[in-house]
Amino acid sequence: MARKRFVTSEISTDRKIAKLAEKNPVAAALWPWFITAFDDWGRMSADPVEVKLTVFPAFNFTSEQIAEFIQLYHQHEIAHYYTVNGKEYLAVNPQTWYKYQTYIRKEKIEKQKSRYPEPEDAPWMDRSDINNNLATINVANQQFDNDLATINVPSPSPSPSPSPSRKICTVCSAGGETHDTDNGEAPETPGVNEYPADFEAFWQAYPKARRKEKRAAYKAWKTRLKQGKAQGLTPDKLIAAARHYAAEMEAKGKEPEFIKLPKTFLGPNTPFEEYIDPPKEQGLDPPKAWNKLRKYINPEEVFGHDSG
User: Fold this and answer.
1) Is the dihedral of CA 13, 17, 22, 28 positive or negative?
2) Boundary-marking domain end, from 58, 84, 111
3) 117 within some domain
4) Helix, strand or coil for residue 83?
C-alpha cells in the first residue's frame, strides 16, 4: 500500500466531489483516504473487505458501507469500478493521477507493471482504434450498398412512402429488414457515456459471465424504476441487489447457465427484490472457508475446555 500521496486543495472545489457530497457527505470526505490506496499506476483493489482492512482499520465502517462508497465514486465518475476474472478493482484517470502525483518516475511506469490489471472499458481509454474500425466498416457498407444498387436497378414505378417510425437499416437492407429507430432506447453497443452512470454501475456489479443483452436490460431497468418509484425503489437499491446476487453466485460456484440474465433479474417477476438487503440478512450458507476457521475461534476445540 502506498505511504505517500499528494492531495491538492483543489479537491475542495471539485464539482464531482461536490455533487457526491450532496448525496453522501461521508463518501466525499473519505475520498482522500482512498487516494492513499492507489498504486503508482492509479489502480487499487476494490474488494470491500480488503479496503476495510488496509485503508480503514481504525474506522467503524462495514464492508457493505465501503462497497457503497466505491459504487458512488464510480457513479459520479471520480473513479472507475471494474472487474477482471471475478475480482473487483478501482482506477482513476492516469492523466489526472500523474498531474498531481508528480514524484512518480516516468521510467518506473514505462518499465514496470502494476499488480492490478488495466481496465478495458474505462471512459478515458483511447478509442481511436475503435473509431478507425468503425470507419472501415462504414466504408465497406457503403461500397456494398453501391454494388447492390448497380445490380438491382430500382423500378421507375412509384412506391409507397416508408412509415415514419420505421427505417431501413443500412447494414440489413439487402434482406429488406427494418428496425424501429425512434423508440428512444440506447443501442446494443453504446458509445462512451451512452447509458446513465447508475446503470453502468449496476452493469459492472452484475455477474460478469452473464452481462449480455445490455439494451434489453436497460429497458427493464427503466421500467422497474418507473414502476417501483412509489415503493421507494432507487438505482442504489438495484445496484446493491446486483452486487449481492453476484456475491451469492460466486460463493455457490454457480455455472453461467444457472445465473439469470440482467433483463430477467430486472424482469416483471422482480427477482432482484430478494437481493436488495445484504446476503447475511437472507440466511445464506456461510462460505466454505468459515467451517475451517471455526475450530480456531472455538475455545472448546482449541483448548479442550471453555476458556471463558
Assistant:
1) negative
2) 111
3) no
4) strand
The pLDDT of residue 72 is 95
How far is Cα 180 from Cα 137, in angstroms, rounded to an integer? 22
Q: How many structural domains compose the chain?
A: 2
Query: What is the Cβ-side half-sphere exposure of residue 62, based on CA atoms within 13 angstroms?
Result: 5
pLDDT single digits (tens) 228-250: 888 899 999 999 999 999 998 98
Is 97 domain-assigned? yes
CB atoms within 10 A of CB 173: 15
Distance CA 29, CA 229 (A): 29
The DSSP secondary-structure symbol of 269 reads T
Q: Write down the pTM of the prediction.
A: 0.45
275 φ, ψ (degrees, to nearest 5) = -120, 5
Which domain does 204 fall in, by range?
Answer: 197-281
Domain-ending residue, one of 111, 137, 157: 111
Who contacts 120 (Cβ-Cβ below 8 Å, separation ≥6)?
82
Cα 154 to chain centroid distance, Å, stands at 48
Residues 200 and 92: their CA atoms lie apart, in Å, by 16
